[in-house]
Fold:
Amino acid sequence: MNKILIGLSLLIVSLCINTTDVSAKGKTITMSIMNTDGLSIGTASLVQDGDNVKIHLQASQLTAGVHGIHIHENGQCDPPDFKTAGAHFNPINHQHGFNNPKGFHNGDLPNIEVSSDGTIDVELITSVVTLKKGEANSLLKKKGTSLVIHADADDYVTDPAGNSGARIACGVISK
Ligand SMILES: [Cu+2]
Ligand SMILES: [Zn+2]
Structure:
């Protein structure tokens, strides 16, 4: 009986901690990532954590190696080319790339590396976008935004998209 009570109180304590944690972090937005055939190959979860937005990407059926990934300006992913996602999310009108003296876009993100089995499970953290509505750099603007994975690596300097090649996967970020 004692053991059960201790177990219960531990459970209550951990529930309280989780609740606090969740409210400090804000709601998690989960979206599906689709490939060029329009089929789901994974998910991305976004959460506001203080000044940062954390993006947890889990996907499979990708080609192994380094790929560019960005947040694009439109919340629309029409396969197979995902052109409807538009350009990189760029509310302050910079050029592309972390190594570009006139850079970078708010939607720019570090390259991801897909394992030899075609899977990826990674957390990306960015402080130049927000999930708070109404802000100029909000990912939840009226028509949403999108997360796009490219065929090639981002060179972090070539405007407007880092020479990262075709768009191979896309997911809509919206409330
Ligand atoms: Cu892109
Ligand atoms: Zn860019």
